[in-house]
TrEMBL record:
SUPFAM superfamilies: LDH C-terminal domain-like (SSF56327), NAD(P)-binding Rossmann-fold domains (SSF51735). Residues 6-145 form the Lactate/malate dehydrogenase N-terminal domain. Substrate binds at residues 85, 91, 123, 154. It comes from Sulfurovum lithotrophicum. Residues 150-307 form the Lactate/malate dehydrogenase C-terminal domain. This is Malate dehydrogenase. Belongs to the LDH/MDH superfamily. NAD(+) binds at residues 11-16, 98, 121-123.
Length: 320
């Protein structure tokens, strides 16, 4: 492989294609490797994106992987392979189907890209991140799940809808799992530095919190045959660029907790500092009792699904 930063995107569906396209349009890295189930489709998309990069005067080259060995030398590998939900489903309904897919690709990454930082996006996100961590055996800093940036972007959008000003200046914070129990944090949310509690009343904030939790489902219901991918893909590239540029910026990401917020050996979304080594530091915020209770419930819902996998002997016995 020629020199330069390399990102492999596993899965060439809506999410994977959009992530690869944004990376190519931004010139975020030198090489994007698309690994899909169907080589011709991956190759067709790779050619199209490489040509788009030329039109955009960017240097990024997108290629299709013939096999897992083409992941070699990846700095970052993004796992997007997996079924999306359709109307009426929760993300959790994808548990067994997507766990098998993520397990298979995590094993390939372990073999062919042992130094990569892995970003998981397949749902249910926190459990899939747990599966990828256990199956690669990588340190927790190098296996992250993308959700918090997306959920915060949604919250920011719903705040804008209410205020009708401040778009692009709203900094929202969402912690916890990427599911119905996610924990939007109005107390840590500002518009150009102004706390939203100074701008909106508690009823309006409550509505924003509910809309944020339902943000994915709202789009699933509108699309009818899949889920959101523009905001999810953009949010993922924020993480990729933080890693490749070693920005040391703070984003909410899913990570294996290790005495963080009082929990260990379970994945949840918390603020982390992202740099060249992945999640180089977990930021522990002082949560109020109600926020702690909501975070606890969110952690418990992820734990329940992890336990379901263990009960089904999904993991090799020695992996817990
Ligand atoms: N973390 C987050 O915030 C978000 C997560 N997602 C999740 O991302 C995943 C992908 O979503 P989309 O790209 O929109 O779906 P899609 O249906 O457009 O693409 C799915 C991709 O997974 C591959 N795939 C499906 N079954 C496979 C199997 N058995 N083996 C290997 N590859 C397989 C397909 O070939 C395709 O490339 C879903 O699980 C979805 O729920 C989606 C949006 C946001
Ligand atoms: O809602 C879904 O199933 C996809 C997803 O995670 C999101 O858009 O937040």
């Amino acid at each position: 492989m020629a020199k330069g930063k390399k990102v492999t995107v596993i899965g060439t569906g809506n999410f994977g294609s959009t992530v690869a396209f944004i990376l190519a349009m931004n010139g975020s890295c030198h090489h994007v490797m698309l690994r899909g189930r169907n080589y011709d489709i991956a190759k067709g998309k790779a050619l199209d994106m490489s040509q788009a990069a030329n039109a955009a005067r960017q240097h990024t080259i997108v290629k299709a992987a013939k096999g897992p060995e083409d992941m070699e030398g990846s700095d970052v590998v993004i796992i997007t392979a997996g079924a999306p939900r359709t109307p009426g489903m929760s993300r959790d309904d994808l548990l067994f189907k997507n766990a098998d897919i993520v397990k298979c690709y995590a094993r390939e990454i372990k073999e062919y890209a042992p130094d990569a930082i892995v970003i998981v996006v397949s749902n249910p996100l926190d459990v899939m991140t747990y599966v990828a961590l256990k199956e690669t055996g990588f340190p927790r800093q190098r296996v992250l799940g993308m959700a918090g940036i997306l959920d915060a972007a949604r919250m920011a959008h719903f705040i804008y809808e209410k205020l009708e000003y401040g778009a692009g200046q709203i900094r929202a914070t969402v912690m916890g799992g990427h599911g119905d129990t996610m924990v939007p944090l109005p107390k840590f949310t500002t518009v150009a530095g102004v706390p939203i509690e100074d701008l909106l009343d508690s009823e309006e904030i409550g509505e924003i919190v509910r809309k944020t939790r339902n943000g994915g489902a709202e789009i699933v219901n509108l699309l009818g045959n899949g889920s959101a991918y523009y905001a999810p893909a953009k949010s993922t590239t924020v993480m990729v660029e933080a890693i490749l540029k070693d920005t040391n910026q703070i984003h909410s990401c899913a990570i294996m907790l290790k005495n963080d917020y009082g929990y260990s050996d379970i994945v949840s979304g918390v603020p982390v500092m992202i740099g060249a080594g992945g999640a180089e530091k977990v930021i522990n915020m002082a949560l109020k009792p109600l926020q702690q209770t909501r975070f606890k419930n969110s952690v418990a819902s992820v734990q329940e699904m992890v336990d379901t996998l263990y009960k089904a002997n999904f993991f090799d016995d020695d992996k817990k």
